[in-house]
Design goal:
By secondary structure, this protein is an alpha+beta fold. The chain is built from five helices and eight strands; from the N terminus they run E-E-E-E-H-E-H-H-H-E-E-H-E.
Length: about 180
């Protein structure tokens, strides 16, 4: 269980928050990533986003093995840039069967194949929120070093032009930087 807290304090300074599709989140200057459930907003919090890490739901065994082999864990010292991208998909997406979603997700949109091209430069962790009754279905956390900023932008653009993104009804793009002691 993870809670992302946007507010007045936190390890991460929010550089910008963009409502890509749908309603924005309240502007917050800082964010904290908490590795547990935060049940109620702490003092100074402007938003809370909660999610759980889970098994990869749309990957084959071979794809999972590739991801595990190439995927670095978040928290690398050089990865001082981050992006938190909460996403909600349409009812039409959730009305599709699992195999229909897989067909769009990987066969036609090449989501995993695209993501693999940017590993290990960009670390990512997916959090599921839909079954928790949260306002987003997924919270994706990315971390990368400043020299990989262009690669990260390419990754985001590639995913946003895919067929899968036609089902996105709300997306907020939050860009952050970790303050590093001098």
């Amino acid at each position: 269980m993870f809670t992302f807290v946007g507010g007045l304090t936190g390890e991460w300074r929010i550089m910008r928050t963009d409502a890509v599709i749908g309603e924005p989140l309240p502007e917050a200057p800082r964010a904290e990533v908490v590795t547990s459930l935060v049940a109620s907003a702490p003092q100074g919090a402007l938003w809370l986003l909660r999610g759980v890490t889970s098994n990869e739901r749309y990957v084959t065994r071979a794809e999972r093995q590739l991801l595990v082999a190439k995927q670095p864990a978040p928290g690398r010292p050089e990865a001082v840039y981050a992006a938190l991208i909460p996403i909600r998909k349409s009812d039409a997406w959730w009305e599709l069967t699992q195999d229909e979603r897989r067909e769009i997700f990987e066969t036609r949109s090449e989501h995993i194949k695209t993501g693999l091209r940017y590993l290990p430069a960009v670390a990512r962790r997916l959090h599921h929120s839909r079954d928790l009754g949260e306002p987003f279905d997924f919270l994706t956390w990315f971390e990368y070093a400043p020299e990989h900023s262009v690669a990260f932008e390419e990754l985001v653009v590639s995913l946003r032009v895919s067929e899968e993104w036609k089902y996105v009804v709300r997306e907020v793009d939050i860009r952050l930087v970790r303050d590093v002691a001098a």
